[in-house]
């Protein structure tokens, strides 16, 4: 179960631990840090709506891990007197696995303070919410963050979220687009051409200037012709890659860049610890030697669609794979609609070949759905 430090502070760690055990859960996936959010909290004792502090951590970072990093973690006011990871580790030991739900490049506070570390699009605009994972300072910070967590607490695993390039759309206050950019155009607006990306891609034999010209031409046409588009305007990235070998090489280089970051975390940050490295993406052969777990998402999906998603994800696994393949299931936004439907969704995850399930999330889930989980999950204990 995904959850936040404010769950522990509000209900108490012992209450949460007992609830998890009685519900049939075996793992708490606790947020180590979190970005800004405007959240509905349907069962909090004091709030029904709350703004998170934003880009803060809920554990006590050790300064020695960040003495050589340009980017530094900022501690939540909630953690000024209480290290929630230390407390959770004490109360869950021998009863529940503790996983650090760790946010990577999604950090507006650090992005505003260090704009040179953020994604820079083809027009030279910076995306303040999006740190660039190719930037050396960002990579060192992310590795230090994971090393700090993995060696300071008895974690079963670290669950990485957005250890990659983020896109244009984010959810900023009054975020607006009257042009009506398509999904492809939004993706192109988020491609990073910062100094580090240009240098590293060029070193991988990519003609970066050709890629930039292509991306800019497509976007310029969208802005010029909106609400229409030119007749030959591409609708998908696959169509655009068919036109440009360099774009295909550029996007392949991005995959290699991220794979090297993940490998660095596994081989350096987690070295000497028993902590597993868990990803939220589907199986990738390039990451098979680095990751101990992959995942697939079935948010707001019917049981039949959940089964299809899990089937597809599990078919990609090699026969010798003995790690975790978990499905992420959201408790909210109208799904599940009943206790029976939740049962069927969980059964679909099992029958689809996944060997784990992670529910999102205790803070925001309606209490009725949490009650259904407590009635349903124990039926799968055997």
Number of strands: 14
**Main sheet: which strands, in order across?**
1-2-7-10-11
By DSSP (H or I, 4+ residues per run), the number of helices equals 13
State the separation between the terminal residues, measured CA to CA: 19 Å
Secondary structural class? alpha/beta
Mean pLDDT over the residues: 96
Proportion of residues in extended strands: 15-25%
Unreliable spans: none
Give the SSE order as H and E letters: EHHEEEEEHEHEEHEHHHHHEEHEHEH
Q: What global shape is seen? A: globular
Helix content: 40-55%
The Cα radius of gyration reads 21 Å
- Characterize the biggest β-sheet: 5 strands, parallel
How does this structure look, described?
This protein has helices at 5-11, 13-23, 84-92, 108-113, 136-152, 183-190, 195-203, 208-225, 237-243, 245-269, 303-315, 339-351, 367-376, and strands at 2-3, 27-31, 33-34, 38-40, 49-51, 56-57, 97-103, 118-120, 126-131, 157-161, 276-279, 293-297, 324-330, 356-360. It has 382 residues and is an alpha/beta fold. It has a five-stranded parallel β-sheet. Strands 12-13-14 form a three-stranded parallel β-sheet, covered by helices on one side. Helix 12 crosses helix 13 (367-376). The mean pLDDT is 96.
């Amino acid at each position: 179960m995904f959850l936040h430090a404010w769950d522990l502070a509000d209900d108490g760690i012992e209450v949460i631990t007992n609830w998890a055990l009685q519900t049939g859960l075996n793992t708490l996936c606790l947020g180590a840090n979190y970005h800004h959010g405007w959240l509905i909290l349907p069962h909090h004792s004091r709030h029904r709506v709350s703004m998170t502090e934003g880009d803060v951590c809920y554990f006590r970072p050790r300064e020695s891990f960040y003495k050589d990093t340009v980017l530094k973690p900022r501690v939540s006011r909630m953690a000024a007197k209480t290290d929630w990871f230390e407390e959770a580790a004490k109360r869950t030991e021998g009863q529940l696995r503790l996983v650090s739900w760790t946010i990577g490049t999604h950090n507006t506070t650090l992005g505003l303070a260090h704009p040179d570390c953020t994604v820079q699009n083809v027009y030279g605009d910076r995306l303040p919410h999006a740190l660039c994972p190719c930037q050396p300072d960002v990579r060192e910070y992310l590795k230090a963050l994971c090393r700090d967590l993995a060696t300071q607490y008895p974690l079963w695993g670290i669950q990485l979220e957005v250890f990659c390039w983020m896109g244009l759309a984010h959810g900023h206050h009054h975020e607006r687009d009257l042009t009506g950019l398509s999904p492809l155009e939004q993706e192109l607006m988020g491609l990073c051409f910062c100094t580090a990306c240009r240098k590293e891609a060029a070193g991988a034999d990519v003609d970066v200037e050709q890629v930039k010209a292509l991306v800019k031409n497509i976007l310029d046409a969208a802005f010029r012709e909106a609400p229409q588009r030119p007749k030959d305007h591409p609708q998908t990235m696959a169509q655009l890659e068919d036109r440009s070998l360099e774009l295909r090489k550029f996007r392949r280089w991005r995959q290699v860049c991220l794979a090297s970051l993940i490998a660095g975390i596994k081989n350096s940050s987690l070295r000497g610890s028993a902590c597993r490295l868990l990803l939220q993406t589907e199986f990738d052969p390039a990451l098979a030697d680095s990751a101990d777990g992959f995942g697939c998402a079935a948010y707001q999906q019917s049981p039949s669609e959940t089964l299809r998603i899990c089937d597809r994800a599990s078919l990609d696994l090699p026969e010798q794979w003995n790690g975790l393949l978990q499905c992420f299931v959201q408790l909210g936004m109208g799904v599940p609609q009943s206790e029976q439907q939740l049962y069927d969704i969980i059964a679909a995850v099992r029958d689809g070949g996944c060997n784990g399930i992670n529910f999102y999330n205790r803070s925001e889930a309606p209490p009725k759905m949490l009650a259904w989980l407590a009635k349903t999950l124990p039926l799968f204990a055997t």
